[in-house]
Amino acid sequence: MEEQELTKSTIKDNMRNILPWNNGLFTELNDIISQSIQAIDSKAEQRCTGYPNSKHQLFSTETGWAARVDLPGYTKEEISLNFEEHTLLLKADNEERGERDLRLALGDEVETAGITAKLENGVLEIALPKKETPSTESQDITIQ
Q: 35: domain range?
């Protein structure tokens, strides 16, 4: 038997193909469902990443959250960072690399006045401290 690389997509396809109703009258319906699932997966991935092939991480720390975003080729002057309506908004734009947008919904527990960001070697590191009482403030963030 031929070895096949197991990816999320091939696992889903294999699971759908072993279902008993994947024969006869239901083949067309299965194809429609498969196409719909692929479209949903694609859109969900775009919402999470903000732009194609983005590299970013968001993780919890003892004092709040931290985010790392790979932005090689961008200077801090070409990046704007804002926290508004419980969402971290990042926009990066230069002629060579184009425009990049990233949105991370974080809820109302972020202390907006304490957010810091640092761009070093093409990696933007953002510290998002947790606050005691949630609020809906809007806060621009200066990149160091």
A: 8-49
Residues paired with 92 in a beta bridge: 79, 100
Predicted TM-score (pTM) of the model is 0.56
Measured on CA atoms in the order 97, 123, 81, 141, is the torsion positive or negative?
A: negative
Q: Encoding tokens for residue 138?
A: 């809007």
pLDDT of residue 50: 44
Whether the Cβ atoms of residue 90 and residue 79 lie closer than 8 Å to each other = yes
Q: Do 92 and 117 fall within a single domain?
A: yes
Q: State both tokens at 10.
A: 């091939």
Alpha carbons 101 and 120: distance in angstroms, whole number: 19
pLDDT band at 119 (very low <50, low <70, confident <90, very high): very high
Same domain, 26 and 88: no
CATH code of the domain covering residue 109: 2.60.40.790
Rounded to the nearest 10 degrees, how much is the dihedral formed by the CA atoms of 98, 104, 110, 111? 10
In 1-144, which residue ranges form alpha helices assigned H by DSSP? Answer: 8-17, 27-49
Q: How many domains does the chain have?
A: 2
